[in-house]
Amino acid sequence: MVVLADRKQNRLTIQTSEIAANTTAIRSLDWDRDRFDIEYGLQNGTTYNSFIIQGERTALVDASHEKFRHLYLDTLKGLIDLSQLDYIIISHTEPDHSGLVKDVLQLAPNATVVGSKVALQFLEDMVHQPFQRQIVKNGDRLDLGNGHELEFVSAPNLHWPDTIFTYDRATQILYTCDAFGLHYCDERLFDEDLSAIEADFQYYYECLMAPNARSVISAMKRMGELGKIAIVGTGHGPLLSHNVAELTGRYRKWSQNQAKTETTVALFYTPDYGYSDRLAAFISHGIDKTGVAVEMVDMRTADQQEVQEIVGRSVGVVIGMPPSSLSDPAHDTLSTILAAVKAKQVFGLFESGGGDDEPIYPLQNKFRNLGLTPAFGIIRIQDTPTENTYQQCEESGTDLGQLLTRDRSIKQLKAFAADLEKALGRISSGLYIITTQKGELSGAMLASWVAQASFQPLGVTIAVAKDRAIESLMQVGDRFVLNVLEEGNYQVLMKHFLKRFPPGADRFAGVKTQMATNGSPILTDALAYMECEVASRMECNDHWIVYCTVYAGRVSKPESITAVHHRKLGNSY
Known about the structure:
The chain is α/β, with parallel strands linked by helices.
């Protein structure tokens, strides 16, 4: 292992290691990164993994993030003679993996770039220079010599539309880029400590792969035709070696469960236009939180027959505005969608912010005239999206999902046995309001399922429904305030926070607050407050049990008592 920077002084480091015969991993370790493209928080940093395969010919699989330009290129030049590099394999063109391909090509002008047709088209716009290319599709092979025969697996939408996997028959390593990865920065090269990584592994899946569960299943079916997979060379986090069967099995199980969801929404976007891909990712995550499946479709590369089938089996469609030019391939997809939608489906529309968006209001009117119901208000993008914009997108997705699952939720509540629900309803609790502020993002939730859980350290548990907007702000490491409501003086606050807020709305407008040391609002009229930090989370079907340590707090009215919430039935709050 070679470390080219002092971790204590410079939190960007490089790690190299031979992982199999004639195969070297180059891992760019980003220790302090706490967000990933604003899409979700990172508690443990991340890595960007690249690989060198040396047979009679030499191939580089993926590159690194541009922030590692000097560290990565110096390392690469120290490992191989770049003038003799034969192939650069592009798993997909997301900048964190392909951001330095232009630099590598300048040092290796004779190298042939290998990738899917879509990837090489995207790469033209990234490198702005001629390059030799080789388009590969599923099942194609490339022989590097000395037994290193590479076979390519088509894996679109994992999580970019141009994705391929690469399998080396000599070493039985499958290079998967984003799939099976996780955002976890650690000097351990492999996955020997499953307990340390499994929460981040699942969180990564839920954020990036769950919206494309059917694509995961298709890619894994193709993987099954390759033979034994000894190592999964991921693009982020540790490589999988000790737990390959276990972790790939979890992907299969999660994706099969997701695909079985009876309710599906088709989400159409244009990944290389404006902010369409990022906005779509947040909307998708919001929908996914409600248990509704999402099928994401690239409007430029989609097969029109498949688009018709997807729209036909979906209960709703969400569309990011493509470019207005009629010559753009996305317009064929838009026409197919309009021909395939049915009355009683729901729809949502968002601008992509590409500077030449298809007008959104005429499309809204067309859908309404066809008998479709809007699930959320139009999302306008007039400037560079902020964290508030992305929060609005996620909450819009959640609103859509809740609209679609409303009848199902009522049926589930009615399924309780009468005596059982009455008995469970006798469990009483207090009344609390959770408030949080994280950068530009804020959230609040009325809570009653709150209990002290430990003495050392002082800790509480809170049950948070998966489809609550605040759930995204209660990840491990997040801080918030738990406000205790006062008996006889809670109705005004409870009524306010029980309101259904539109996506992106300010939950604290008209409410007296003051700031806690952790930056979250304290409700001035609360009986007491506690400052908390999320330590761990446990999944419980339709809720997360969030365990939090308590490190500060005070009581404003020592003579008063906590508001108590009594229920009659256990099938609701």
